[in-house]
Amino acid sequence: MREIPDIVVGRLPVYLRALSRMIHEGQQVTSSKELGERLGISSAQIRKDLSHFGEFGKQGTGYQIQYLVEQLQRILKVKEEWKVALIGVGDIGHALTHYNGFVNRGFRIVALFDSDPKKIGSLVNGLIVIDAAKLVDEIRARGLKVAMLAVPAEKAQEVANKLVEAGIEGILNYAPINLSVPPNVRVQHIDPVIHLQRMTFYINS
User: Fold this and answer.
1) Using an 8 Å Cβ cutoff, are 179 and 157 in contact?
2) Disulfide-capable partner of 153 in 5, 46, 177, 205 (CB 3.0 to 4.6 Å)?
3) What's the mean pLDDT when you consider all of the chain?
């Protein structure tokens, strides 16, 4: 497959979420126009994005939603469940552990790590918090490829280095700092302040 622009890949989960919502509402067929109106994206952009991966609909008849959902799940590799390590069981980590949105969308947190002696060995949503000193061995033993990082900024790079050493290939980073990782490791940064600052640019003062 030719290289797909990252901005296109970033829109696919948005399409998948909207289509899954349509199924939940009992809808079976949609069009790029209807999907675009729901998402604030032009129908031409949606058709162009999907065309990178093949033909999923017919002119005049639209898309079979269930089929398109299954194809997007296949493209995004979330038809099977990804097991995820979570490092840092503070406020954000605790909330992530209890978040039900990962279930049935391709991800399940299976291992919790923290360096706080008060948290190590405690039970959080059915999982025992493991000493972060054992992170590399535990992740290797479980064969995990995805991790979520919810540690303080000053600890994030050090922990990221250990995740790379352990064989992690994808990091969802909640620490407010950019991480330096090898080219084969994908990092997604989640910083609410950055999104708020981007949003306030557009608000009339």
Assistant:
1) yes
2) 177
3) 93
